[in-house]
Amino acid sequence: MSDFTADNSPAAGKGSSLFKETARTKRRNAAEARFKAYGIGAIALGLFFLIALLSAIISNGIPAFKQTFVTISVELPEAKLDKNGNRDPAEMAKVTTFGYKPVITNALIAALKAEGIEIPFAKEKDVADILSSSAPAQVRDTVLANPDLVGQTVDFRLLASSRVDGYFKGRVTREALARDKNLDAEHLDIADQMVKAGLMETTFNADFIFGADASESRPEQAGIGVSMVGSFFMMLVVLSLALPIGVAASIYLEEFAPQNKWTDLIEVNISNLAAVPSIVFGILGLAVFIQFAHLPQSAPLVGGLVLTLMTLPTIIISTRASLKAVPPSIRDAALGIGASKMQSVFHHVLPLAMPGILTGTIIGLAQALGETAPLLLIGMIGYIASNMPDGIASGFLDPNSAMPAQIYEWAKRADPAYYERAWGGIIILLLFLMTMNIIAVILRRRFERRW
Amino acid sequence: MPILWLILLVLALGLIGFVLGRSRALSNAGGDIRQLHSLPSYYGSNVLLATLIPGLAVLLLWLIAQPMVIHGQISSMIPESAYTDAGSLNLVMSDVKRVAEGLDIAVQEGALSVEQARDIRTEFTDIRARLGEVGVALGSNVEAYVLKAAQRYRVMNAVGHWIMTGAVLAAALAGFAYALMRTNKDYRARNQVEKVLLGLLIGAASLAVLTTVGIVLSLIFNTIEFFKLYPAMDFFFGTTWSPSFGGGSELGILPLFWGTFYVSLIALVVAVPIGLFAAVYLSEYAGPKVRAIAKPLLEVLAGIPTIVYGLFALLTVGPLLMNVFGEDGGLGWMQGGRSVMTAGLVMGVMLIPFVSSLSDDIINAVPQAMRDGSLGLGATKSETVKQVVLPAALPGIVGAILLAASRAIGETMIVVLGAGAAARLSMNPFEAMTTVTTRIVSQLTGDADFASAEALVAFALGMTLFVITLGLNILALVIVRKYREQYD
């Protein structure tokens, strides 16, 4: 034991103590603190980006849910709107929106004069630029739906033009209007006075949520409702195809597949498909469903088929995980009392795995709902989704847009009023995604079984 | 909706088959279930499947085949003088279809009688005006051969439809009768049903292979078409990208590659350090409470659709960068909100959770014993991470980064909205550049004529993209798999 009696005191120099940090320890501890701070910084940065993203969405998108309306009484003169006086809608339809415009302009001028608001224009009818160009169509539709209104004075709630609307939301300033041909600063003075007189107000706009898209020059009229219906039909296709096919494929791979080359090939394919860029699925859809099978362009059916192929790998992977989570003892017990292999799977394993399968399916659906790139290639943009589908077949087959495609379409239009719509559309889209994810979490919490 | 009716009819037949098959088996056994080979419902299901599968299979095949056959027949009716190449033949064909649809609508609305629609001639009637009356707008006057083709198209469609209805019902009935006749108490109905079910399961599983085959075929055929029109060498090594649908376009992929590479590089420079540090902190330092909150919150970033990131890049990050690096900020490096930097930064944010959760899994897979050993020797936690955990996890982390890179290269919406449309080879990250995915979108949207090199180039671009991302994914999977084998 003589080795141990040799001097083996610490290599540190004189005066070192465990209670006093040496320069080296200090350096090491500082490095430790720094490293930890980097980690906290990284997480904080990630969360900061999340907050920045969400606050940008909310602050830019909330105004889209409000809209400025003008409430005026419009006199509907028989002489102009129904010359023959027999209130036949087919005959009255010959009066176009051009015929209605002066009627509305006069009503607006009269309303302003009644409130004592001065009109500072050389031509009084220029004041009508305050109103949306959709106003004549709105009045015309109301009159054609109810011809007896002609000759009466009716209260209408008309859309204000997008620039007046932007003024109340802080998007449009008087200085900016100096370069704008559509509206003058004087219009805004009148608008201010109209608000005071109660003729104009900015309120909640249900048409944004349920309405149809409008042409490029009328952002005040655009809504996301029709594309929501398009998305809904697409999700129906995805759900009705991806769920059964995905579950069937997973059952085969997890419960029946022998270890051979074909099974290997399928497995490799599924994991690769999960990582193929979504735009490649768009190319596939274009080539196979539109070029080859001649299905109609822009139809939710085609969109749904493409998204089905895209979400299948997601659903298969999560379904296999939940099938795997069912313990083998369940299968053994079923087989032991005489069930066939197929019976043990369909009667026992599948019901037990169902909550997990549904969770995975909902998450796959949410992913499909937000996907845009493949939809661009099958023609869901550059198209104004202005008509609600009239029936189930037309819902699947008629050209329509989808929520993300509609948002992209709005983002492409140059008018800042459409940017506001795009942010608003994103709020709605995210609300849908959030609801789906929350349902998935609740399902998992409520029904998940730990074995 | 006659096809829907046909499907319902076949379904109804199947249900009848179920009931009949079940009761036939039962009566054959004298009402005693114990005499049967299988449970009674299996006999029913057997007849049900034997009815539905042939019926629906014939329907599906017919629906796919009929348009193709008719298309071939009709296009042979169009005189060769009317078209110059495949593209203009397609235009003529779509005219034919529109006229045929117009005639259908006219008959439906009563503007034409059935005989009139069949026998009407351009020599005697102004078809365009007649169809205009029922709301079918035609671009030009109807040529005689178009009208004839359209009428033939309608006749063939109608005849084909009737034959299809007959064939589907015959197939369903044949299956029905065959299965019902074979039903008796000793028939092994369960084995038969299970065999069919297994076949369906295998079919569903094979769909994944079919999808890949579809992707590869649609890319390859169109890419070959493209290389017939445009030399492959110029495509892969050309440094100019200037498509013009009028002809004389230069379609070199190099500027697109450079844009894609540059955007992805910036994205990875943002995402990899943040994601990696976040993963290290979450798995090595954070307590369970912090982890339970921070990890799902970070993963929210992964669940946000890419269109949202695209809009964020275009409308928030772009203007923000313009304020700092643009003319207003005094630096003057940036000409517009769309730039490589805009798209790269936002894509980096999108990839953070991708890198962090993959690395998190991999770091967690490093055995605790290795950490304990290092800590026991007196290393600090950060030294353990840097010198023991990260080197052990390195192959997995490299795999995760490769997967993130493949995601970045294939990302579409962020670059479409954020990176711009100008193809250029430049080092300045504040300039607008364009990427492979952006060009695919712009070449294939709108009413492009699929026969032109300018549209077909998108398939060649897609093929390149597919091959690159597939290569990266396979490489990543191989690396990750190899690493896992070490510790399991």
From TrEMBL, chain A:
TM segment ranges: 37-58, 232-253, 273-293, 299-317, 349-370, 422-443
Gene Ontology molecular function, alphabetical: phosphate transmembrane transporter activity
Residue span of region Disordered: 1-20
Membrane topology: Multi-pass membrane protein
Cell location: Cell inner membrane; Cell membrane
Highest rank taxon of the organism: Bacteria
ABC transmembrane type-1 domain location: 228-440
Main location as per UniProt: membrane
CDD domains documented for this protein: TM_PBP2
InterPro entries on file: DUF3333, MetI-like, MetI-like_sf, Phosphate_PstA
SUPFAM superfamilies the record matches: MetI-like
Gene3D superfamilies hit by this protein: MetI-like
Any one GO cellular component localisation term in the record: plasma membrane
PANTHER family xrefs: PHOSPHATE TRANSPORT SYSTEM PERMEASE PROTEIN PSTA (PTHR43470:SF5), PHOSPHATE TRANSPORT SYSTEM PERMEASE PROTEIN PSTA-RELATED (PTHR43470)
Family: Belongs to the binding-protein-dependent transport system permease family. CysTW subfamily.
NCBIfam families per record: 3a0107s02c
Protein name as catalogued: Phosphate transport system permease protein PstA
UniProtKB/TrEMBL annotation, chain B:
Keywords for the protein's UniProt record, in alphabetical order: Cell inner membrane, Cell membrane, Membrane, Phosphate transport, Transmembrane, Transmembrane helix, Transport
Subcellular location, principal: membrane
Pfam families: BPD_transp_1, DUF3708
Source organism superkingdom: Bacteria
Keyword Transferase appears in the UniProt entry: no
Sequence intervals crossing the membrane: 45-65, 162-181, 196-220, 256-280, 300-322, 342-367, 388-409, 455-480
Membrane topology: Multi-pass membrane protein
Single GO MF descriptor: phosphate transmembrane transporter activity
SUPFAM superfamilies in alphabetical order: MetI-like
Family under the similarity heading: Belongs to the binding-protein-dependent transport system permease family. CysTW subfamily.
Role description: Part of the binding-protein-dependent transport system for phosphate; probably responsible for the translocation of the substrate across the membrane.
Protein name (database record): Phosphate transport system permease protein
Lineage: Bacteria, Pseudomonadati, Pseudomonadota, Alphaproteobacteria, Rhodobacterales
